[in-house]
C-alpha cells in the first residue's frame, strides 16, 4: 500500500511494524494489528483503527467530527464485510479522496 499510495500511507516501523499511518492534511488514521495464536496454533488477526485529530482543526474538520469519531466502528464493519485487504484499501482510497476534495 505504501508504494501504491505514497502520498497517504506510511509505515513508521517499516515492514515489521504493527501499524500503518494514513495521512490526510487535517487528520491521521492509524491501522493497528495484532496476531493472536491459540494453543492449537490457529492464528487470528485483530485490527483496529485509531484517529489522530489536531486539537484545533479547521471549520470543515469540526463539521465532520462525528464522521471521524465513528471511523473505528465503520472500519470494523468493513473488515467483516470486505475482509482485511479490501477494508484497508477502501479506507486508503477514501482518505485520499477526502484530501484531494478538501472534504476534511
UniProtKB/TrEMBL annotation:
Domain of life: Eukaryota
Pfam families on file: CENP-P (PF13096)
GO terms of biological process kind: CENP-A containing chromatin assembly
A GO cellular component entry from the record: chromosome, centromeric region
InterPro entries (alphabetical): CENP-P
Stated name of the protein: Centromere protein P
Organism: Calidris pygmaea (Spoon-billed sandpiper)
